[in-house]
Amino acid sequence: xxxxxxxxxxxxxxxxxxxxxxxxxxxxxxxxxxxxxxxxxxxxxxxxxxxxxxxxxxxxxxxxxxxxxxxxxxxxxxxxxxxxxxxxxxxxxxxxxxxxxxxxxxxxxxxxxxxxxxxxxxxxxxxxxxxxxxxxxxxxxxxxxxxxxxxxxxxxxxxxxxxxxxxxxxxxxxxxxxxxxxxxxxxxxxxxxxxxxxxxxxxxxxxxxxxxxxxxxxxxxxxxxxxxxxxxxxxxxxxxxxxxxxxxxxxxxxxxxxxxxxxxxxxxxxxxxxxxxxxxxxxxxxxxxxxxxxxxxxxxxxxxxxxxxxxxxxxxxxxxxxxxxxxxxx
Length: 330
Fold this sequence. Notes:
Blueprint: H1 3-32, H2 58-78, H3 85-112, H4 120-142, E1 147-149, E2 156-158, H5 163-181, H6 187-206, H7 209-229, H8 238-255, H9 259-265, H10 267-285, H11 297-303, H12 308-327
Antiparallel strand pairs: 1-2
Helix pairs in contact: 1-2, 1-7, 2-3, 2-7, 2-8, 3-4, 3-8, 4-5, 5-8, 5-10, 6-7, 6-12, 8-9, 9-12
């Protein structure tokens, strides 16, 4: 068997086990401090029954994934294979910084006891700052260039000075798209789990240790969190978790010089973000009419009578389809 199989298995099992342990420790603490998720009143009325469910559960899998990657990094150092440590560390640090923005947002919601934390402008400005710092470190520390790989071909596209604004748009756009997807029990953790399988396959087939290691850790973390977040959820990840996941996913595209293929694989997240944009534009153009029953897209299907299980299953299938097509292009 390919030795990479054992690497994937060990990293997955560690992240899964650590996440289970941290969530078990975290859940009673969140309940004790009444860290309950405020439910948006304009959302689906049946979501009001979720009031009182603890949030900030994302801290559990962030810690589980982080500890796993730390152990893997030590293993690489001890075996004199530290070539990809910087890339793995930088991707994770970017995820933690974006997760910290989400934590500030979650904390303010808990303090105010309403579904309003940071303003959209405050959150986006902070994301821009963190993303710009990530791009600078990627350039200085990893030596990333301004060319990106074109999927389904052996060619690269040199973007020159346009690389940086486009990369900022790519990073912040994907981070927020993941955040929008986190609106149904188990939806984001399931779709990111499917995406993680794509990263693992990409890394194993193409020899990319960064994709293999981070994909395996993400899969373990998402599976461990799903034990608590599948419907009916015992805990929500909050913006802490969703911004972390979006940041890690998008950062892999930058360090691999392959952001286009990552965007294609993230088709579900793109659809969620586009549904919100179209809803807002149509509402303004039509002077008050709605294109969808509710945005993001998963809420539209809920309003159409779909159960949360059905929404998750269908979105996971679409995510798998996007990942499969994308795998042909790497």
